[in-house]
Amino acid sequence: MRVAMFGYQTWGHRTLQALLDSDHEVVLVVTHPKSDHAYEKIWDDSVAELAEKNGVPVLLRNRPDDPELLDAVRESRPDILVANNWRTWLPPELFDLPPHGTLNVHDSLLPSYAGFSPIIWALINGEERVGVTAHRMNADLDAGDILVQRSVAVGPADTATDLFHRTVDLIAPIVRESLDLIASGRDAAQWQPQDRSRASFFHKRSAEDSRIDWSWPAERLERLVRAQSDPYPNAYTFHRGQRIRIVSAAVSEGRYGGTPGRIFIREGDGIVIVAGADAHSGRHPGLVIRRLRTDDGTEYAATDYFRTMGGYLTTRP
């Protein structure tokens, strides 16, 4: 089949490489210009460079509502569009243009976690599995019929970085399997409608979403720290008006009562911070901070940084 691809960052790069390694012909690539957004500078393998290296025509666009772009896609005569990590909505005159429509590859187990940063949100929420879904694009966000879906387990110590690497490795086999099924004919490709009653939608992450709220239970805060692992912008809090970023943390073994955010006691190799909306009850664990980083980039063991107990970590300076 003749394939035109819309994609960006490492997700798009893996998709394009899978297409180039397949028996299908890549006739056009559309990708975004480089961005200064913190999250878009992390996994930033260049789709444009890969396309150019392989002699594939490439267009840089922030948005797809461009008559020249529509003309270019039409003139490339694709049998199918494949999209992965295209950051804006595609209009129907594009996604319905080829005979086989558009196959979108999304890094969640749809219908859950449609939208942005699904792995980070799923880890914060304590999901047991994450994965990748190939589905037919329609007018609603990540809502089309599913063709192939694969998942991986979330371990108790997994970070978002760990899960990124495991899920991004699913892209190539999913793309190859999906296109081979579609090329084989209607009977081979079994499209499954999504259960829209189970759908959930998430927005892009920003600095505000990494701010620690000490009224959260320690278990959720520990997952937030793992979800904001390096190289992501770390979860952060404030100590004596200065921001500190939490690099490593754990749920305490003991139960600690008092006011959320209180710098309480040493436990093992870290310092316990009282946490939870009902921390006054003393029935719940706290968050053990093990390692932290100041805004100048210096990293500390929490036991070296917090030399005396008492005082509070706060949500704002």
Automatic annotation (TrEMBL):
Pfam families: Formyl_trans_C, Formyl_trans_N
The protein's Enzyme Commission number: 2.1.2.9
Designated name of the protein: Methionyl-tRNA formyltransferase
Residue ranges of domain Formyl transferase N-terminal in the record: 1-169
Membrane-spanning ranges: none
Key word Cytoplasm present: no
Positions of the Formyl transferase C-terminal domain: 206-308
UniProt entry keywords in alphabetical sequence: Transferase
Signal peptide: none
InterPro entries noted in UniProt: Formyl_trans_C, Formyl_transf_N, Formyl_transf_N_sf, Formyl_transferase-like_C_sf
Organism: Streptomyces lanatus
PANTHER family: METHIONYL-TRNA FORMYLTRANSFERASE, METHIONYL-TRNA FORMYLTRANSFERASE, MITOCHONDRIAL
Any one GO MF annotation of this record: methionyl-tRNA formyltransferase activity
Top EC class, one word: transferase
